[in-house]
C-alpha cells in the first residue's frame, strides 16, 4: 500500500510505477499545462500521463525538461506514459506513432505506452508493435487502456507479453469489480482514469460524510479509496493548490466499513465512452 507520493507498485515485468500521478486529459498545449506539470514535480509527483490524442505532448515534454533542470532530478526519476490513438492502430502505424510521440515529448523513451481504446480488429497488430518496441528496449513497459475482460482474453491468446497495465474508467459509480479481479489474477495493474467521474461525485452525500469525518475533501477520499483498492490513479488538475491537495492522501486511512460504503455506491455508470461501443 502507498504511504507517500513516491511509493510505487511493481509491474509484472519488474518496472516500478508510482501509485499516484498527474493526468493531463483535456488540458491544451501552453503555459498553463507547463506550469501544472512543473508544480506537480515540485510537489513530489513522479508520474505524468498523457496521450497522442490530447494534443499536448509538446507542452508536457517542455515541462519535463524545465522541471528536471530546476529540481536536479534525472529523466529516470520520472515515469511518463503516453498512448497510441485509434487512427494509428496497426503494426507499422503504431511503431510510427510511438516515434512521433517521443519526438513531440523530446524524450528518448517512455516508461509506459498504452493502446488507448480496443478498436475491434486493430488492437492485435498494435500490440505486436508494442511488443517489438518493448523487446528492442525502446519502452520500459507496455499496456492497454479501456480493455474489458473479453478484449484482454482476445489479446492474450496471441500475445507473447501480458499487458503490464490496464487503464480504465474507475470511480465509486463504476467500480469494475470483475475487471479488477481479472486483472489482479493475470498480473495486470489496474489504473484509474477519471477517478472523480469528471467532478460528478463531488456532491455524493456518503463520501461527503466520510470526508468530513477525516477532515479531508471528497476528492481526497476518492483518491484514497482508489489506492486502498490497489488501483494506480492519475487525477487531473491544472491548479497548484488542487495538485497538492490531490496528493495529500497519505496521512489517513479509510476503514473497511468506509471502503464498503463507498463500494456500495456503484451504479455501473460511465461518464466516458463504453469500450464495447466506440465509433471514433
UniProtKB/TrEMBL annotation:
Query: Sorted alphabetically, which Pfam families does this protein's record hold?
Result: Aldo_ket_red
Binding residues annotated for substrate, in chain numbering: 116
Question: Which segments constitute the NADP-dependent oxidoreductase domain?
Answer: 31-266
Active site at 54
- Read off the InterPro entries from this record: AKR, AKR5G, Aldo/ket_reductase_CS, NAD(P)_OxRdtase_dom_sf, NADP_OxRdtase_dom
GO terms, molecular function: oxidoreductase activity, acting on the CH-OH group of donors, NAD or NADP as acceptor
Site feature Lowers pKa of active site Tyr: at which residues?
A: 83
Q: Does the keyword Transcription apply?
A: no
What's the superkingdom here? Bacteria
Tell me if NADP is a UniProt keyword of this record: yes
The record's keywords, sorted A to Z, are: NADP, Oxidoreductase
PANTHER family in alphabetical order: 2,5-DIKETO-D-GLUCONIC ACID REDUCTASE, NADP-DEPENDENT OXIDOREDUCTASE DOMAIN-CONTAINING PROTEIN
Report the family membership: Belongs to the aldo/keto reductase family.
Its recorded name reads Aldo/keto reductase
